[in-house]
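re: ur question from earlier - yeah i can do the single chain one, its not a big deal. heres the input i used so u can compare w yours
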Amino acid sequence: MTDNITTAEESPEHILELRHLTMKDFADIKELMDVVYAQAGGAWTPKEYKAQISTFPDGQICIEDKGKVVAAAFSVIVDYDQFGDKHTYNEVTGDAYLTTHDPNGDVLYGVDIFVSPEYRGMRLGQRLYEARKELCRNLNLKSIIAGGRIPNYSKHAQDMSPYEYIERVKSKDIYDPTLTFQISNGFEVKQVLKAYLPEDKASLGYATLLQWHNIYYDAEKPNLIGGVKSTARIGCVQWQMRYFENVDELLQQVEYFVDALSDYKCDVALFPEFFNAPLMGLSPSDTSIDAIWHLATYTEEILTAMSHLAVSYNINIIAGSMPVIEDDELYNISYLCHRDGQVEKQPKLHPTPHEKEDWIMKGGNQLTAFETDFGKIGILICYDVEFPELARILSEQEMQVLFVPFWTDTKNGYLRVRRCAQARAIENECYVAIAGSVGNLPKVDNVDIQYGQTAVFSPSDFAFPHDAIVSETTPNTEMTLIVDLDFDKLTKLQNEGSVRNYLDRRRDLYRVEWIGNSDE
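and the output i got, formated as tokens:
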């Protein structure tokens, strides 16, 4: 029998990938530029594009969706003193051929950035800006400088000068699609450029000279796009159970937390087990089994929405866990919504006695170590973390962070999860993050109280906090927990720790082996 316990779409709506441009992408770039710059000359020529790719390939990046380029950013390294603040677009870009490129220069100059109109609102421009900043840091350049259009200025030119217009945009009295976006991404306006792009009629030829300072200039340089990260920032949601009238209200609360964690540049947002349980109160039946099976009818809608949030807010989301009905059986599944649009799943393998008896819930039969853009992770839902074999198997697959969405009603139930999570961190020399819910659900039978305290645990050695607790929340209070993790410390621990659980394991005497087969 084939294991197929998921309602996730086999083919996600979007599969986004950040990568470098190649010559094969020219047809997509031309199509995109002809739309975006229909009133400003359209696309570059093949000759110009080839020169850009050949001259500075690392600086030309894009986001593709299922093989088609939907956003792109171009840049060049220059010796900025040769141009100064008074320059035109053609001067600094070598008429778009990038003949000004200087590998020994000190500034990354933004040549262009554009996003397909069909993908606006998904924050792809922000991703490209973050990639540029990463490139700037990696190359140890002083700053990013760019000339920015002010396309809404033509609507206000009779009433104010470009200087006044810029100040009004900075104070948020006026919205400009380009300048507002650049300011929100950490760029500051140095001055106004005249005749920067004379053909830009919407900006009346004016542009802003923008600068982003690399505060890590001369610091140790991280890897370029796609490299292995040595750190990760994780965000955990301590979720307040409250009554919701409908799915939209619940998703509004979800988006609030996703937005907040995204603003703090978190790589991942972890929600608790059964965070959508308040919707059980909408069941027409009063029995707990009917309520949980009714809750499962909302899962696909919620999953689709959370996957969209992951893409649009540029943050991976572990969607706690939700009930799923497959072949007339009920399962509890955690979904990993990647920020590139992919969705993966981890079922709960061990339903509790309550879940088996009162909800007729079945356990899944797959265990996965997931590859993410911030490291290799595992997910164990609540009770599953109390079985050390599972974390050991994930550890053998080089898991760096174990995420545990949980839902407990009493303090002793919570402490079982907490103590076992701490043990898993020490045994397997990894970080463990747990996130739970708090508050009351008086209208939901058998699940009316919650006790929880969200926390992140580390191994116990000198490189880590003295109590092996990286951070933790206030118990029973709705809040978020944001923690930076250092993976280099895990590597050092494995080789130089006071004790070395991974290296000292007696594999000649014993082992933990996965004998399940998802195709059975």
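The mean pLDDT is 90. not sure if urs matches, ping me
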